[in-house]
Here is the input.
Amino acid sequence: MQNPQVSLDALAVADGLARELAATAVARDQAGGHAAHERQRIRDSGLLALTVPREHGGLGADWPTFYAVVRRLAQADSALAHVFAFHHLQVATVLLYGQPEQQARWLGQTVREGWFWGNALNPLDKNTTATEWDGGFDRLLFSGWHEASQSNVVAAVDARHPAVAVQADWNAFGQRQTDSGTVRFEHLRVPLADVLVAPGTTLSPRATLRTLLSQLILTNLYLGIAQGAFEAAREQITRHSRPAPLSTASRAAEDPYVQHRFAGLWLLVKPAALVADEAARSLQQAFEVGEALSERQRGEVAVAVIEAKALAHRAALEVSSQLFELTGARATASPLGLDRFWRNARVHTLHDAIDHKHRDLGRYLLDGVVPAPGSYS
Amino acid sequence: MQNPQVSLDALAVADGLARELAATAVARDQAGGHAAHERQRIRDSGLLALTVPREHGGLGADWPTFYAVVRRLAQADSALAHVFAFHHLQVATVLLYGQPEQQARWLGQTVREGWFWGNALNPLDKNTTATEWDGGFDRLLFSGWHEASQSNVVAAVDARHPAVAVQADWNAFGQRQTDSGTVRFEHLRVPLADVLVAPGTTLSPRATLRTLLSQLILTNLYLGIAQGAFEAAREQITRHSRPAPLSTASRAAEDPYVQHRFAGLWLLVKPAALVADEAARSLQQAFEVGEALSERQRGEVAVAVIEAKALAHRAALEVSSQLFELTGARATASPLGLDRFWRNARVHTLHDAIDHKHRDLGRYLLDGVVPAPGSYS
Amino acid sequence: MQNPQVSLDALAVADGLARELAATAVARDQAGGHAAHERQRIRDSGLLALTVPREHGGLGADWPTFYAVVRRLAQADSALAHVFAFHHLQVATVLLYGQPEQQARWLGQTVREGWFWGNALNPLDKNTTATEWDGGFDRLLFSGWHEASQSNVVAAVDARHPAVAVQADWNAFGQRQTDSGTVRFEHLRVPLADVLVAPGTTLSPRATLRTLLSQLILTNLYLGIAQGAFEAAREQITRHSRPAPLSTASRAAEDPYVQHRFAGLWLLVKPAALVADEAARSLQQAFEVGEALSERQRGEVAVAVIEAKALAHRAALEVSSQLFELTGARATASPLGLDRFWRNARVHTLHDAIDHKHRDLGRYLLDGVVPAPGSYS
Amino acid sequence: MQNPQVSLDALAVADGLARELAATAVARDQAGGHAAHERQRIRDSGLLALTVPREHGGLGADWPTFYAVVRRLAQADSALAHVFAFHHLQVATVLLYGQPEQQARWLGQTVREGWFWGNALNPLDKNTTATEWDGGFDRLLFSGWHEASQSNVVAAVDARHPAVAVQADWNAFGQRQTDSGTVRFEHLRVPLADVLVAPGTTLSPRATLRTLLSQLILTNLYLGIAQGAFEAAREQITRHSRPAPLSTASRAAEDPYVQHRFAGLWLLVKPAALVADEAARSLQQAFEVGEALSERQRGEVAVAVIEAKALAHRAALEVSSQLFELTGARATASPLGLDRFWRNARVHTLHDAIDHKHRDLGRYLLDGVVPAPGSYS
Here is the structure.
């Protein structure tokens, strides 16, 4: 079990880091590209060791603590929170897929050398070409299609290996500093010792928790965006907005419609946060069950994650678009950068289709069928 | 602190009671009037002593347990759950407003003699005529306007006292067996020993928790309706509904739109339940603080209750109306009585206006002002 | 072309009839059963001849006029408006399916003898047992399955023929006086002259307008319910409602939230009405094209009808449920019967599944594919 | 009355212009600033004379035709459509406020010299500093506060007059090429002959139609954005999108959820367009009534405009944000520029607060009170 102090300390560090990221978030969103300085600040914070077990020298935080940190960072900068969170997803992948020797070796080095993990995992891609790449990493997890066994192989590689060619071709209108891009591998030879998932391996239910960890990262990034947008709206309304032309209120914050709508936005954010917290606890419990985790138990965590993701998805989109109804036209000035919340939410919530998640949830609620483990559930 | 076994036992008893009430709920809703037999079954269950402290011979359940029981009963029959819950509100009133002697006397008798409490409290009514009355009670709390001190007096009276005249004039299209009605008091003389709130008394923040207990009862009744409707829909869809004419699914439960919509309803119910649970815990903590409770602390509980009530309000109305979109036309047959969920939700959610609650919540979120204690907050 | 005076006269007569129906609508909804007196009043009004062409002695109203009358009646009483509208659907069926001789014979008699038409048409039922029957009719259209040709036959029969057995088994919680029920035919022999659709007939696109006429009847019934509920809400709010407890307005009608919400309901009703009007004009044009009507032209009318029906569906449900948010608790008194709007809307909108209509509309908008003619489109 | 051919010709010209604008809209949105070339193309099209009466050499189009053109242009480029529409608002201002001599002089020159009108009208600004300026204009309408009469004066001025100083300080994240900015007037002397509204003038109800013309311009810009976004979504879905990972459809356009949602967006766009068309006809009728127009008649047009604006507001925001749910992640690539619809809608819909418009509409619907003429209604 985790030391409760870890959680308090991690959140305090995250708070400081978030304040720092917030100060430059608008400018960096407009610039796009690679945030080298900020990534170094994350590295310096020590939070890259957050989820590494204490036996490997890490902080040994549990998943609820990790998600709280992700959410906090995403309020300030959802692109860097994304990079941060996906580093930990790779740490978790080593824990879920790797052999004890690999865990000891890689996670130890992660702590000692301050490795930043990225990934080029795409189980749906059979051209050995991953479609996402995180630049500026030290070590990459990647997947490749193994024709003979008709299965995916997962391995780790030094990100600067000469056979790894990366392309900074991410050009979406949101989540601009996530260092996403295309990675190509040309005749890369991977030593057996670096293979986490060998050809033909069937993953245990526990190993497939990886997808749920990943989906709950998205959830908490969405929530962070929603919360960041909500706070930015509060700041505008209470400090800068003027009452609407036809309003009789002396301050925008006292207009009955502004108050009503603001409450409405909160009623999207708060329940989504509670449901996400519950999902994180349920994921933590499943993690702790170990290899005995049954398909059913794993499936029920998947359901909890779908619930949380659906609510966070809506909260992020609605709050980030509706906030302007409350702040009025002045808040649309480009230097304020308040449109970044919607752009980030809009781009990031398209990771996988919400409607089919609803269908999976409905199927469970009606017929008790849990979602099949896969790349998105 | 409460014995955890109390909660388990109470919920088990409530489950049995709920099953019993469910069996006749449709017929009794159609008949309306006084449910004498069912009230006796509630009395027999021992649950009238649920919130009475153990020092007075009760079960000493905490408020979260109480609300879980209310919600469970309301799934089966929201009218009788209402009667049950308001009994406990009067028990709480004795605890919050009464002197130690009154608590010992009345709560002891409540347990020993199986008293069912009702109320004719209406602080807004200055004609000493309460507008709501619960029939078949043993003991009533009531309020009256004291002209000299320009304040309300609250006292308890034997419900069969000859000066108390009751009128079963409740005729709403929902919540039909709540035994609501009008009570008139003609020249009733109340001994000082039976007065809980004397003329001119200023209630402490803790005493004003009464309104929040009451508002959270409404919340859990709404939630129970939403959950009852949700379960009824599941039953219909999985057992009785046929696929829609243009559907290609072989069972209604496998239609992609049915699955999607059903998930949508759940995403109203589940977060509302989590937020209500959180509000109940926050109310319990405030209760335990005792007379030291500050206005601010009290106000933050009020905010938590508003959040919970707003979500439960919407869940109850939406689930009870939309369920038919999923079940199809057969579910509108009168003998099934599935319209009762909407009728009960619709009538009960009008207790106080949701929009002004949203405004109070927005004011708190924007300017940090907590709602003023009153009859509705 | 229709004489414009016809439309004005018909609407004036409908107005008078609607006022008369409104006076007893609440009581009759509560009683259920057969509204003999009111059906006689409809007969007396002359409006049963509304859509009968002038050459057969009728008023020769066009479809937009007919739908305006249906909507007007439905504001007062959507069950009797239903009975009235389905009479005209059978008149239209004689026009669309029948031979000139049949049209002359039956429509002439309809006018001269004041026939009220009902139907027991159910093309999906292969047991020759229609599942819907309208009581108190003079003449029925019915369908039966012809095994040899694997097709439906449609014919007319005197409703009092001894081989026709009817059962008043309609027991839904809404649309209670529609005289729906089950009809059984025992060894009924139909003369060839009374067969409208012979075994194996392929209907022309024009003949399949019947379904669209029927769907647009539903649409206008929903709209009438929405408009009736809206007017009832206005009446309550402006004359009877008190401001909400926490409101600072001196009249409910002056509360800013009441005004806002009321506008919101109107913004459901008004656009639905405009779209329904447009669909009626498009249907009228298609009707006037005659047998040359192409599948594509017919399909575009089908799309217009889906659009109108979807909007009317939502307007009816939302207005009839949300109106109470505006009127407050007093409006839930049973004698006012204001819940009938929701009950009628809820039952009637389940005629066919809205989601699959949305899908048909989306398919048209994306790929230009018009809905296939059938029992519901 | 207008020659029907005018409308057909104008729409054909607008179509060509829209196609041309569309080809560069994404690039120009990203560049921001002044679109000199495109403004010249508008000038060349002859459409600057669209609403100038034929007696002054213009095309004499009616307002419904004008709005159809605005909407068509806005589908392609809502910033340039804005510039185009506000030119015509100034033409209308000359017609509504000006003397016959002024109309003849200025409108004649508008046609002969191809004037582009802009405005610096801001009746709420008492510092003689208008807060909006459209660059690249030939002639400006502006307002100034007249201290002695405590009223606004409106006059026209050559935009290149040395006393007129303009500042291109518009920096919102949407509607970027509207040439908005701040105009300052330093010791400008205006000849009496150029004053349209003299100090102390009370505007007739007809003259106050100007605000409604302006509000209906906004409405049609919003609608154009909604329609442009809808068409862009269709293009993406049918040509470029892949089915969602968990979908069983072979094409995105055949996924049942995509079809359903796409229909849902259309059901926002289409009714909004019908209601806007109706408002345009009602405005045209009021315009034709002339100076006899009563306050009540004017007020009913105001109500029609509020209805249209509220629906268009919602359609623009919802379609422009939700379209991505349908197209999937690929559509977020910056070069496609599909986020511009939301950015344009979001910035432009904040012109004035929607909630207070709803309140005005509700007040009319409940108590029959028409909105008072003003800067926003």
Remarks:
- Residues 232 and 257 of chain D are 18 Å apart (CA to CA).
